[in-house]
Design brief:
The chain is of the alpha+beta class. Helices cover 34% and strands 21% of the residues. The strands form seven sheets. Strands 19, 25, 26, 27, 28 and 29 form a six-stranded mixed beta sheet that branches. A five-stranded antiparallel beta sheet has the order 10-11-12-13-14.
Length: 723
């Protein structure tokens, strides 16, 4: 007989989750993925450099153990405690294998030191991650220290998670009356560290125009489509839609671009808007460069990728015209499906890419100088290692990032243990503090279980500085090409073929198939969307697909769309799967957990619990408690308490308090004095706050103990005398 889940069972699940994943896993997982895969991808992206007859190829990248170079030139390994005490930076040497070719002949390979790379405490590169409790104590570390921060010039610094709009996703909106355009479809195209906005606007006269970066004015849609390689009007309309009503909406745009009929003329027209007074070949060349490099770069930057861009532009136009015809609503920018969080790995990747580009330019200059002088070339001697070292250190020390961002890196708050955890789980929105932004500050329904509803500061930062909920997890990302291949195997018809097929059908039979999107890009159509969605979910539950892959099916009277997401930065949360009105997790499973036979990950591997992102949650019907489950439910909350963050979850009887009181307490809990770390006598902080006699609270929540607050208490119990 299946025993229903008890309250104790559900608490044990939360306990297992926190014990295995910790409360700072998001930063560590992101950083680990970057140093094991992301860094190598950036090096391969650059490939190498050429100067006259010399060619240098970049190969494998390697980061050594954290070390320090002493004044006498000797090098030795260090641990975080020494870096703190001696005001050093906790960083490891970065080596790149470089191969030299002269006149096409290989002249040897060498492992070149290119600088020191900051190492995150308790990451895969940090020796502390492999130590047990006794070893940590012997090395002067607090065994309960969460890690997830850097040590720069002796001070602990953390990269705060940045909330941003999702890249490469088309968002449509209705504009207010004062602008020239009435409707707009926008996309933030991101590739190789560049983040370039492009948009399609519908003007008051019904014509559609494309806004391309570095082009002075709007370009009519049909001219851009022609420039991308679709010469005839038939091909262009085919790439946009198969719906007769939408075709009618395209007529004003077709007439507006009727003068330009060839690909070359279209390129010449665009080139004329970029460079003025230049001959025709120069204009065409410039237009090709802009379309390849700066227009939708996430689809590729080669001339053969232009057709893909034309079809993506077609997808943008179709979505925009569906909005105009009232077939879909404007996209909600505050819906968490349209948001991504940029963590330590992602932030370091964008910084390192810029630094490495400058490093390559400097290396090229040095090579030219030595080659022209006719001297013997040794790569190890001409590399300036301080370039990367200093620039990375400076960015982490000041918080000034690429793209004009400030305050990305902050001093870790060590007032008490809770304030440290809360700081590591903080999420910051880039919006201006001086403007109202009411919608952005509001609590959105999709933040349930992902963002704490109580923990946000008062004043100008209210609603813009948020904190993660207890069981929120941030995806690291799965290889998109692998998922795309899998989707084609499952019967997804590639979009270019599908558009041609639909055109050949009678009007009443068109548009029966569902569109399939992968990370916001329309890749094709499928005959049976319900089968596709259920198959992907079953594969994920059986462990054949990554638990980070999410799929959602949205169907209205006019729209049938399958969304598959596998990118990094989505906030997912675990939910118990319900089948036939019964939760799949039973007391027997939790007993295995208590006996040590199972771990949290076993529940994921056996398909009993799965992670849902905000998009897939739109398809779910979730029960709060086991007794509420009906046959219609698809999932069950692990525990409703998990909607709270670290600070709010320690408030006893929080549901009996007025809402602002919980927010005030979440802020004040971070100011209580106690002792923030057990190694306080060994640390040499310039500022520290300690209470001589901290006490455990008399009224406690269960989460207080799970977080570890009782071992690092702060504050005292209030004693009231009633006379």
């Amino acid at each position: 007989m299946r025993r229903i889940l008890t309250l104790e069972d559900r608490w044990d699940l939360i306990r297992a989750y926190i014990k295995e994943n910790g409360l700072t896993k998001q930063h560590l997982a992101s950083y680990n993925d970057f140093v094991t895969h992301g860094l190598q991808r950036i090096i391969y992206e650059f490939g190498g450099l050429e100067v006259k007859e010399v060619k240098i190829r970049f190969d494998k990248v390697h980061i050594g153990a954290p070390m320090v170079k002493e004044a006498d030139g000797s090098e030795r390994n260090i641990l975080p405690m020494e870096a703190r005490l001696r005001n050093l930076s906790y960083a490891g040497p970065l080596y790149i294998t470089m191969t030299k070719y002269v006149n096409g002949i290989r002249e040897g390979t060498s492992k070149v030191f290119v600088g020191y790379f900051p190492i995150m405490v308790k990451s895969v590169l940090c020796p502390l991650s492999k130590m047990g409790e006794d070893e940590l104590v012997a090395n002067g570390e607090d065994p309960r220290d969460p890690g997830g921060y850097f040590i720069i010039n002796g001070s602990e610094r953390i990269l705060v998670a940045q909330e941003d709009l999702a890249n490469n996703h088309v968002l449509v909106d209705v504009l207010n009356g004062s602008s020239l355009a009435t409707h707009v479809a926008k996309v933030l195209s991101s590739a190789a560290g560049l983040r370039i906005p492009s948009s399609v606007e519908r003007l008051r006269d019904g014509t559609l125009h494309v806004v391309i970066p570095s082009v002075a004015s709007r370009i009519p849609l049909f001219i851009v489509m022609r420039a991308l390689g679709l010469e005839s009007d038939k091909q262009i309309v085919e790439a946009i839609t198969w719906d007769p009503e939408i075709e009618v909406e395209l007529l004003p745009s077709l007439e507006a671009a009727s003068d330009i009929q060839t690909i070359e003329d279209a390129l010449d027209y665009i080139g004329g808007k970029i460079v003025f007074g230049q001959p025709r070949p120069r204009r065409i060349e410039r237009a090709e460069l802009v379309l390849d490099k700066y227009f939708l770069p996430h689809l590729g930057t080669r001339p053969e990728d232009r057709i893909k861009k034309a079809y993506f532009l077609g997808q943008m136009v179709e979505k925009l015209l569906e909005l105009v015809l009232g077939r879909r609503k404007p996209d909600d920018k505050d819906h968490y499906a349209n948001k991504r969080l940029r963590l330590a790995g992602d932030l370091l990747a964008s910084l390192f890419r810029v630094m490495f580009k400058r490093f390559c330019q400097d290396l090229q200059y040095q090579l030219e100088k030595i080659w022209d002088a006719g001297r013997v070339l040794y790569i190890e001697n001409i590399v300036r290692a301080d370039l990367i070292t200093e620039r990375l250190r400076h960015a982490l020390a000041t918080g000034n990032w690429t793209g004009g961002k400030v305050g990305v890196s902050q001093l870790l708050d060590r007032t008490n243990y809770l304030s440290t955890l809360s700081h590591l789980r903080r999420v910051v929105s880039p919006l201006s503090r001086s403007q109202p932004h009411f919608e952005a500050r509001d609590l959105h329904a999709t933040q349930w279980g992902r963002i704490c509803p109580n923990e946000s500061p008062e004043g100008p930062n209210c609603g813009l500085v948020k904190n993660l909920a207890l069981m929120a997890r941030i995806t690291v990302g799965v290889d998109e090409a692998e998922i795309e291949t899998k989707l084609y195997e499952l019967g997804v018809v590639p979009i270019q073929r599908a558009r041609r097929e639909e055109r050949g059908k009678p009007e009443h039979e068109r548009g029966k198939r569902a569109k399939v999107f992968l990370n916001g890009r329309l890749i094709g159509v499928h005959e049976d969307p319900a089968f596709l969605v259920n198959y992907i979910r079953e594969e994920r539950r059986k462990g054949r697909l990554s638990p980070e892959v999410n799929v959602a099916y949205l169907e209205t009277e006019y729209v049938k769309e399958v969304y598959v997401n596998c990118d990094a930065g989505r906030i997912v949360r675990p939910l118990i799967i319900v089948k036939g009105g019964k939760p799949l997790v039973t007391s027997e499973h939790v007993n295995k957990l208590r006996r040590g036979e199972w771990r949290w990950d076993d529940f994921i591997e056996h398909g009993l619990i799965e992670y849902l992102d905000p998009m897939e949650e739109e398809n779910a019907y979730i029960a709060l408690n086991p007794e509420d489950v009906t046959p219609e439910h698809t999932h069950l909350e692990v525990m409703p308490t998990a909607i709270l963050g670290v600070c709010a979850s320690i408030i006893p009887y929080a549901e009996h308090n007025q809402s602002p009181r919980n927010s005030y307490e979440a802020a004040m809990a971070k100011q209580a004095l106690g002792f923030s770390a057990s190694n306080m006598l060994l640390r040499m902080d310039s500022r520290g706050h300690f209470l001589h006699y901290p006490q455990k609270p008399l009224a406690q929540t269960r989460l207080l103990d799970l977080i570890g607050y009782n071992d690092r208490p702060a504050g005292q119990n209030m004693v009231v005398a009633v006379l």
